Amino acid sequence: MGLRGKIPLFAGTSGPLAAAMLLLLATCACSGRGGGQAPPSGGGIPVKVQVAEPAPVSETSEYVATLKSRDSAVIMPEVEGQITDIYVHSGDHVAVGAPLMQIDPRRQEATLSSQEQMRTAQQANVALAQQQFDRINGLYKAGVVSKQDLDQAQAALETSKAQLQSLDAQVKQQQVQLHYYRVVSPRDGIVGDIPVRVGDRVVSSTLLTTVDQPGALEAYVYIPVERSTQLKMDMPVQIVDATGNVLAQSRVTFISPQVDTSTQSVLVKATISNNRDRLRTSQFIRARVVWGERQAPRIPVLSVITLGGQYFAFVAQNENGKIIARQKILRLGQMIGNDYVVLDGIKAGDKVIISGTQFLTDGAPVMPQA
User: Fold this and answer.
1) What Rg do the C-alpha atoms of the chain give, in angstroms?
2) Which residue, of 99, 175, 188, 357, is most buried by count of CB atoms within 10 Å of its CB?
3) For the segment 27-49, what is each residue's pLDDT rounded down to a tens digit?
4) Alpha carbon distance 100, 83 (integer Å)
């Protein structure tokens, strides 16, 4: 029925109220003819889909590990005494044999001087015994002295020589001992922390400093004993930062045959290349142990929806002859290029909707497009 057919209903109404009602009716009639949008042919929302392709996914676990240097020398004194000089600072590059510290050598120098004087005196005794032997030997040949006198002179000479050799050995020992009062670097490297100061008295167990060579480090990873049966030599190990970026690649080089009784864990070592010096000795880092690989589907990043910290995606499914969108809860893994690896929620071969997801609800009809 047109507008004219409805006018007589308001015949009893006059004034502004009748005019307002007529305007409202005219508006509704116009909107009913052309204001709404017709649904697309086929009765579904046009969307683009992409088949979830399988991709290899690593099964990993992360643990806190400690880095230790494979080329670090701990410097301790060989002798006791007071430090009189320190020639280096922490961080200095030193060559093998470079002096690091000086321990007061005066007492040792006095001992060495005394031994050298005793050796000098004994050298004089040996010279005298040699002269005595030569004299007795000449007299013996002339028949003036007996064979016994010659034997006694020879014995005295041999005794003097033996005493001189003993003193020579003692002097050399004291010279070596004096050498220890100057602490030198056993290798090329970088000087570490120096906890001692000039004037400190040190003993053979005192830590003076360390000398480290830049290069390879060793990661000490403690694996829970429950997973120790899965450990194998040459297993991949990745050193990662706080954001998960891989800093270094390595493999297991040592598996301890014993369990740490205090932590119920097994020690695993992995050699880490440190060519760029991005890692430091005694640093705590994250070590990612790769247990193996399996196949998991990959889906585009644009197809993933985030709601309240949960990840979702829509999959086009054929149900009773109709293509509808089904919402799937996802558990995502690492990102490869512009794709997410899906650990759970979607299987390989599913048709993932990658466009128009903001207009979809679970069970909405869709029309997949090429």
Assistant:
1) 46
2) 357
3) 333 333 333 333 444 568 899 99
4) 11
